[in-house]
Amino acid sequence: MANNLATVQQIYSCFAQGDVPGILAQLADDVTFFNGADPKVAPSGGTFKGKDGVLQFFMALGSTTQTINFQPSNFKEEGNQVINEVQHDGMNNSTGKSFSVKASFVWTFNEAGQVIDWKGTGDFGSFNAAFMN
After folding, report:
1. Does 71 have pLDDT greater than 60?
2. Where does residue 46 rank: exposed (0-12), middle (13-18), buried (19+ CB within 10 A)?
């Protein structure tokens, strides 16, 4: 069985390099992504299903925001899950408003070592506000 923590760290490395195909390669075909931002205001908020959905998530995030700081920390493995905290600071490209999000990410893996579920929860208030005029 693959080392789930190493897989998550590889995904973060791909994210830092803008390597979305590298991220998608670590996901199960039927993966579910949930971002706690409000989908009514932030196109990267809500639930995304399958690799096509995850691609839409990253396209929405990348086209609407600029990341200034992205720091994952406090990693722990529990069974088939990796849990960590993330500090994500950035700016909305359209409004110019900044955001600062402290979130908890939960990565769930199948027996093949692929991510089948990702949940990003926390205080997305400033992220949502950055999308409002």
Report:
1. yes
2. middle
Task: Tell me if the pTM is above 0.90.
Answer: yes
pLDDT band at residue 2 using 50, 70 and 90 as cut-offs: low
Residue 60 has a CB neighbour count (10 Å cut-off) of 19
Looking at domain 4-130, its CATH class is alpha beta
The secondary structure of the chain as a DSSP string is ---HHHHHHHHHHHHHHT-HHHHHTTEEEEEEEEE-S-TTT-TT-EEEEHHHHHHHHHHHHHHHEEEEEEEEEEEEEETTEEEEEEEEEEEETTT--EEEEEEEEEEEE-TTS-EEEEEEEE--HHHHHHT--
